[in-house]
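Notes taken during the Thursday session

The instructor put the following on the board and asked us to keep it in front of us for the whole hour. The protein is FANCG protein. We were told not to look anything up and to reason only from what is written here. First, the residues (588 in total):
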Amino acid sequence: GLPAALPALPLELTVLYNSLLFTVGASDSAIKGEAEGIRQGLLRVLEACGACGQDLGTEELWEKVLQEVTMEELQAPLHRLGALQAAWWLAASQLRSVAGLFHLLSTAEDPERAHCSEGQNELLSMIKAWQVPPEETSLPLVQSAKDLKEILWTATAFLQGLQELEAGNFSTALSLLQEAAGGFCSKKILAQIYTCLGCCAQRMGKPQTALQHLKRALQVDFQCLPALSHVAAVYHELGETNAELQALALLYKALGKNPPAAASSSPCLLMRTELLVHTPVLTSLLRQHHPSEVKYLLAQRCLQDGRVADAVEHYLDFLSLLQEGLQQQVPLDGSSALPRIPEVFLEAASALEQAGRHQDAITVCEEVIRRTTDHIPRVLRVEESLQQPECSLPGAELAGALLSQKESLCCLAWRAAGYLLQGWAWAKLGESKEAITQFSRCLNDLLRVQLHGSGIKQAETLPPEVEMLKKIRLLSLVGRGTQFLELGRHKEALLDFQHSLQISPGDPGAASYLVQALWKLNRKEEAAAQWQKFSQSSSGKDGQQQGQGRPLPLYLVSCLEQAMFPHSEPLARSIQDYLKAAAQDTSS
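Then, after some discussion, the predicted structure tokens were revealed:
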């Protein structure tokens, strides 16, 4: 409450500087909001000089103080306070404000050195050129202005690098992050910078350079586990499955331990780089995976690579984690690597089935069927109009309708896939009748879907779930047809294969089975004609068809493989012999 007095201002501003640093250090959390204490200090300076600035914004207030207050004894305290103000603005990513302030500080020091141009690159030059005011022994500081300058420079380079990385300017981002890596910071921050360098190099298409940066991050701070997850991602991109699985296994093991307190190579400082740089892009790059996410990635990668035994082990471990309240531990903001839980169950069932554990696969599928049944309506109408931009429903109502339709389609697809996997599992057990029952249940399920709309039959207007249901129907028809063949019910098998080809004309598996069914029905002339037709188109149109459409979910890949015709060469030889014999009979 005392009036401001010029002789006491250097002490007053130094006390303010120290108290703000103590406040920052005590909170040990990212700086947010405005530094009201700094504003009050500037107003005290103006008051002592007989001026006023209550109506000015913070930037205008700094400009007024630095231009009008010329007393030598106030320059050092004001510059130190200016560095603190820069820290607050930097934490808010207000780089233009920081640049303007350092421009004013440089002008106050030496008008000849004032910079005329603005910009982020210019900012680093201005910070580096700023002359740190000398310390006075009579006014001790809790953190030197020299250290603060180094921290500001490092944080600015780091922040600019992240902004350029987010904007897709990777070369500029790489240069700025490399500058930051040479700055003044703790081991923890240095590891984070190297992690960002690795991500930047990866996006530039330089995976080996990315690995070098990421390994450097782990050498600096072995607790920087996000770097390890990015290492696994780079190895996945390179197709080096062994290295990827090793990285994921190390990550899972590390996440399961309680890490000790992070070590730092820097002295204990109140203002630190980590308190100034906290942007969404950094949070995203450094997101810590939950152990269950890593366990799922291990299972998924093993299954994709054909390491079925390992995949089964990881999937079963993951399913056991579900009993520990997994859904409450994993983030629900879309950043998680986990798919929907029914999909994980179906992937586990696929792995079990491929490992020869058919009964276990059937049991897991039964759980999916049981849990989805209550969420599937008796008739599911898919409206094309909901997919169109000109739909007349209000925004909230449209979103709700789309969500409801999508969820019902997902549940139907999961249950149908469960029946499909059960069908193939029973087939592997030699139980053709039970397999036919499950395939038929799958097909009956799919009859619930009714498509409405003039253009709904066009693939581009179909929801992805409907497209997947078509693929499930194709695989189920082929599967049931193969079991009819096993039981000698060749006419029924022929009908299923014909229906399959109506869904997917030219499908190689269905086409080959169709030829075999005709052959077994002793309709050899038709079989030969169909075989010739499909042989001629197999290298053209059909090859193109196989590469079209959305990729299949992982749990359907094994069904697709099982639907492929396994006896192509013997059947081809039989038909070729028949055609030769027919040609000889004609010529004679």
